[in-house]
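User: I'm putting together notes for a lab meeting next week and I want to include a structural view of one of the chains we've been expressing. I don't have a solved structure, so I'd like a prediction I can at least talk through. The sequence is below, exactly as it appears in our construct file.
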Amino acid sequence: MFRFLAGVGLGYVLGSRAGRERYEQIKRWTTRAVDHPAVQGAAGFVQAKVSEKLHLS
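Assistant: Thanks for the context. Below is the predicted structure for the 57-residue chain, given as structure tokens.
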């Protein structure tokens, strides 16, 4: 999750420097990646595992 947020932040900075059009392009790519079923599945899996570990402690 940290890597993803770091990537979003980096994309924002680079997009800002490249102009509004480039920023919008990076934003669309990010949205598509986050909404992708494989990413959603992985996020659900990780969330379930974290929740499982927290309840066992």
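A couple of points you could mention at the meeting. The chain has one domain: 2-56. The chain has three helices and no strands.

User: Perfect, that's what I needed.
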